[in-house]
Amino acid sequence: LAVMRHQGGGVVVNISSLSGVVSAPFSGVYSATKFAVEALSEALHYEVKPFGIRVAIVEPGRFATTAFNDNRLVAGPDASPYSERRHRWDAAMERLPGRDQPAEADAVALAVYEAATRDDHPLRRLVGADAELVAGLRRDLDDASFEHTVRTALDFWD
């Protein structure tokens, strides 16, 4: 930031996620890190704007990646009281329409490029149809209606 202030401007691009806008069961820790990126980036935006420095947050939805393959640590048989629900949640996510057609990583790369190069880029930019849909529902619905919509769409009821 010191160099950017000295030169009179610059751009900070932070990668968040749809999970920084909406959390889901069993992703609380990941969502917490992305919500933190959102808060830090927004605060930084207000702090550095007077120095001609822009901050942009790119919020991808689901896209083709191997980043989350086999990333769970398992100490042994799952005796957690949440294990049955976790398995049902995973199955619900597998049934999600369009699950086999994630956005291409190129779309995320283009969003990052545009965030870095376009002076009119907004503070936040969702990437992917799923991100736009879910974030729009979260914005437009109250908590109970949003939860009901998600549970109905995923057929995930207790």
Describe the model.
By secondary structure, the chain is mainly α. A three-stranded parallel beta sheet has the order 1-2-3, sandwiched between helices. The longest helix has 21 residues, at 28-48. The protein has one domain (2-64, 83-154): Rossmann fold. The protein has helices at residues 2-7, 28-48, 83-94, 105-117, 129-140, 143-154; strands at residues 10-15, 53-60, 124-127. The termini are far apart.
How are the SSEs placed, and which strands pair?
Blueprint: H1 2-7, E1 10-15, H2 28-48, E2 53-60, H3 83-94, H4 105-117, E3 124-127, H5 129-140, H6 143-154
Parallel strand pairs: 1-2, 2-3
Keywords for this entry:
158 residues, mainly alpha, Rossmann fold, elongated
Termini distance? 49 Å
Number of helices, counting only DSSP H or I runs of 4 residues or more: 6
Which CATH architecture?
3-Layer(aba) Sandwich
Oligomeric state of this protein: single chain
The CATH topology label is: Rossmann fold
Give a quick precis of the structure.
The protein is mainly α. The chain is built from six helices and three strands, in the order H-E-H-E-H-H-E-H-H.
